[in-house]
Amino acid sequence: METEKMRGVNTVTKIIKEMPGGDYAFLRRKRPTKLSKDAIKTVRLVDLFCGCGGISLGVKEACNTLNYQLEIPLAVDFEKEASDCYARNFPLANVINADITDLLSDAVGAPLTEKEKELQEMVGTVDILVGGPPCQGHSDLNRYTKRNDPKNHLYLYMARAAEVFKPRFVIIENVTGALHDKRHVVQTVQQDLINLGYKVDIGIVDLIKIGVPQTRRRLILLASLDGEYSVEDIQNEYSVGEERTVKWAIGDLANAAPTSLMDTPSVPSKENQRRIHYLFEHDVYDLPNEERPPCHRDKKHSYNSIYGRLHPDKPSQTITRGFYNNCMGRYVHPTKERTLTAHEAARLQFFPDYFDFSSVSNKTALGIIVGNAVPMKLPYVYASALLSDIEKGE
Fold this sequence. Notes:
The chain is an alpha/beta fold. The protein has two domains: 255 residues, 3-Layer(aba) Sandwich (Rossmann fold), CATH 3.40.50.150; 127 residues, DNA Methylase, Chain A, domain 2. The chain is 32% helix and 12% strand. It has a seven-stranded mixed β-sheet, with helices on both faces. Helix 3 links the parallel strand 1 and strand 2. The radius of gyration is 21 Å and the shape is globular. The chain starts with a helix and ends in a 7-residue tail after the last helix.
C-alpha cells in the first residue's frame, strides 16, 4: 500500500528544477549515483533507436530522483558503435544491435507476427516506452531529403511498439520538422496511439528553458494510458528560469590534457586553421565574408554561424555530428584556437563526465554518437513528470 511518505517523495520531486545537487555539479560528476537498496518501485523501460543512451540516461536519473529501480528489458539501435556504447553504460540492459524493421511490423492493428509475439514474451511488462527515431530526414539542416526521407517512416514503428508492449507511458523525441513530414508520420502515430487508448499531447520544447546550454528545440510526443499530460505545462513546471552558457558548461575543460579521444581536438586544414586564427586575431565571433571560401563569399547566404566562434556568455548553437569542424557550424572554442572536443560537445549535450564513451573507436564515430544524442535533461524532465505519478491507478 502507498504510504504518505512515498507520496511525499513524488510530490516534492515533481517541482525540482535541476538534477539533485544542481545541474552544474551533475555535469561534472565522475561516478553515477547508486540507488539505495530500499527503492520503492521498479520501472521497466524499452528504448528504441536508443543510440548511446541519452534518453535512457534521463529516465535512469529520473528513477534515481524518485527512488525507483530501473530495468531495461530491451534497447535497440542499428549502429553498432552506438549500441556498444549503450551496453557499456547500461551493463544490465538487454541491448540488441539490429534494424527495428527486422523486429517489428509498422502495421498497427494487424495481428502480431510470430517474431513480435516472441519479443513481447521476452520483454514482459513495460512501464515506459521511449524512442528517438532517426531525425536527419526531418531536419531543417538537411536541404536534400527534408520531409521526404524514407527514414522518416521509422517514426511509425513507435506506435506498433506501443501496441506490442502496451506500456503505460510513451515518450517520442524528434526534431521540430517532423511535424511537416509529407507522409504525416507524427500525426499518424498520434492517431494510432489514440486508437490504442492513449491520451496524447504533442509540443515543442525549448531546451534552453529546462537548463540545457544550447539553442535546441525538440518535438515531444507524450502518451499515457492514465491521465492527460501537457508537454508545454511540464516544460514550464521544470523551467530553470535562466540561460546556461557555454562557459557555464565547459569553462573548466579549456585546458584539459588530450590524454584520451574525448579530450583530443581535431586537426583542421591549413585554411580552416587560418580562419580560426583570424577570429582570435581580430577578436570577432563571426568570420567576415571575404575570409570565407568562394561558395559562401561569392553569393548571398545566411550561414553566418558557419566558421564562427562560440560566445562564452551565450548558449551554444545546436550540437550536431559536425562539432569537430568549423565548416559545419559555430564550433570554434570561445577562448582556444581550436574546435570543440568530444568531451566539450558531450557536456553541451548534457552528458555528465561519468558517462563512458571509451568503447567508441574513432573520432568520426564519436562525432556521430555525441552529435546524434538526445540531451538527457529533456527525458529526465518528462520521465520525472510521468513516473512521479506511476503508482496512481495501481
